């Protein structure tokens, strides 16, 4: 039986990134993790390697990925999970500074990660970018977050054309009860934003699992995405059979 290789996961300090890293470690993979804050709990595991860095800064992102992968010869997958939620509200009230910051973290940082891997000849066989239903449904209020995830989907499609030897997928993981939900569900009710009420009603139900439960479902699916989409495609876990 082939020994599991290494998986690169960004944004492992908390939430889904932390949970996916823990799942991978539990299943025998070596995990290369990065975040700004670090994760002491994961660091206790002998198969977890971590380099702290700000992926929103090009030089920091490049150096972080180079250091994290320089001695790796068995990189099987990269999970581009790190991201931020933009200010929620109408675009008419949104400053360009907020849009630029969101695009920098959710799109350009991932471009830097992929470019660094490609230039080093370390592009793995599978690349999964954590996208969102917000990328395609155009719900009012999601502004910069929706724009950034739509751009991320196209980034993945373009990289798939350049790297036919790897399978790329933009994956919407469904509703997950993370710190992002603390922010969204804590916003005041507003009839303009019906999606907020939907999130509140889903919270604390099976429709919005915690990160650990979500990772238990998503972990195996990461290795089966070729069955669900062509390289460069977008897929929502809620529509997968």
The CATH architecture name reads: 3-Layer(aba) Sandwich
Shape descriptor reads globular
SSE ordering? EHEHEHEHEHHEHHHE
What is the mean pLDDT?
97
The number of E-state strands comes to 7
pLDDT < 50 stretches: none
The CATH superfamily label reads NAD(P)-binding Rossmann-like Domain
β content, as a range? 15-25%
The number of domains? 1
CATH topology: Rossmann fold
Secondary structure tally, helices: 9
Give the strand order, joined by hyphens, for the main sheet.
Answer: 3-2-1-4-5-6-7
What can you see in these coordinates?
It is built from 9 helices and 7 strands. The protein has helices at 15-26, 40-43, 58-69, 96-119, 134-137, 143-162, 179-185, 194-202, 211-221; strands at residues 6-10, 30-35, 48-52, 75-80, 126-130, 167-172, 233-236. The chain is globular. The chain has one domain: Rossmann fold. A 7-stranded parallel sheet has the order 3-2-1-4-5-6-7, with helices on both faces. With 241 residues, it is α/β, with parallel strands linked by helices.
Question: What is the topology?
Answer:
Layout: E1 6-10, H1 15-26, E2 30-35, H2 40-43, E3 48-52, H3 58-69, E4 75-80, H4 96-119, E5 126-130, H5 134-137, H6 143-162, E6 167-172, H7 179-185, H8 194-202, H9 211-221, E7 233-236
Helix pairs in contact: 1-9, 3-4, 4-6
């Amino acid at each position: 039986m082939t020994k599991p290789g290494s998986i690169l996961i960004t944004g492992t300090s908390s939430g889904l990134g932390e949970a996916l890293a823990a799942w991978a470690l539990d299943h025998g993979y070596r995990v290369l993790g990065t975040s700004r804050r670090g994760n002491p709990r994961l660091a206790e595991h002998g198969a977890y390697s971590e380099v702290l860095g700000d992926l929103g800064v090009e030089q920091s992102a490049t150096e972080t990925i180079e250091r994290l992968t320089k001695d790796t010869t068995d990189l099987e997958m990269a999970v581009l999970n790190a991201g931020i939620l933009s200010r929620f509200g109408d675009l008419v009230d949104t400053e360009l500074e907020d849009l630029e910051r969101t695009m920098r973290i959710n799109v350009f940082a991932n471009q830097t990660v992929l470019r660094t891997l490609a230039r080093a000849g370390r592009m793995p066989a599978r690349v999964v970018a954590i996208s969102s239903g917000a990328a395609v449904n155009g719900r009012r209020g999601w502004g910069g977050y929706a724009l950034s995830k739509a751009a991320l989907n196209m980034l993945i499609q373009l990289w798939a054309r350049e790297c036919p030897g790897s399978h790329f997928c933009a994956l919407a993981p469904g509703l997950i009860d993370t710190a992002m939900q603390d922010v969204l569900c804590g916003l005041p009710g507003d009839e303009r934003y019906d999606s907020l009420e939907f999130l509140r009603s889903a919270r604390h139900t099976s429709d919005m699992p915690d990160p650990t439960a979500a990772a238990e479902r998503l972990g195996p699916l990461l290795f089966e995405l070729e069955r669900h989409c062509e390289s460069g495609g977008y897929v929502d876990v809620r529509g997968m059979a």
